[in-house]
Fold Adenine deaminase.
Amino acid sequence: MPEWLNALPKAELHLHLEGSLEPELLFALAERNQIALPWADVETLRAAYAFNNLQEFLDLYYAGANVLRTEQDFYDLTWAYLQRCKVQNVIHVEPFFDPQTHTDRGIPFEVVLRGIQQALVDGEKQLGISHGLILSFLRHLPEEEAFKTLEQAMPFREAFIGVGLDSSEKGFPPRLFERVFAKARSEGLHAVAHAGEEGPPEYIWEALDLLKIKRIDHGVRAIEDERLMQRIIDEQIPLTVCPLSNIKLCVFEHMGQHNILEMLERGVKVTVNSDDPAYFGGYVGENFAALHEHLGMTEAQAKRLAQNSLDARLA
Ligand code: HPA
Ligand code: ZN
């Protein structure tokens, strides 16, 4: 990566902590917790990182998360991510975690949260990286389950800045979660949601109008709806775009076809993020580098993208 790109101060606003689980750490945690894995070794696992769509990725992502059992595991996961951030001059992070992926396996909510939170606090003290944690609901599960998760989170209300919505998008529109998002907002939590990654522009409208989100995660399909484009430009609603993710999950065929710079030039507040860096081929820095290499992103454009990420912080 060019040094001028690395040196830019950046914020990362779209990162699933479970998606930062590198194969080496996954194998180390499996050994520590005495869990048998379906892959022979790190290379075999890495070779399985070939996806035709979001669901194929999610199946592997949830299987990988199975090695996370103890508070120390969640600490080590988060700490490894923060060290990558430090090297790439990511000075602020607003990561997601999926409590249901863990509580449904019998891991207590507070075990997950305490490990993540302690690493974030240490990251602030020792690495100078500020943070705001976002609790994400799994949209392939019913809204009642999201309500239960929110209830479990409330004793730790101060640990979060907001709620998100992730997992399988198609067939699970934002409107299914209108009531639980209203409840979360009434607790003073910010709202964000994945919308317009694989799903249609209508899902972005719903996320804005019904969930009252402050930021759109992905949102690249907004470009198919001119009225929606005008709204997100007029209201300067940030999009947390994840270029390498979009290629790995076949949202775009090649990086040369990605629309992030076209959106930027039209005045959309787009930002660059890594989504699930262990699975998609890189962290924020590699995502910026790919835009430089394949889309001819200039230094001026990179600066605007980095500034957008700092402006779009919720914490
Ligand atoms: N989309 C939806 N859900 C997710 C993703 C994603 O890119 N990564 C982890 N959960
Ligand atoms: Zn995501």
Summary: Strands lie at 10-12, 90-93, 96-97, 130-131, 134-138, 162-166, 190-195, 215-218, 239-241, 270-272.
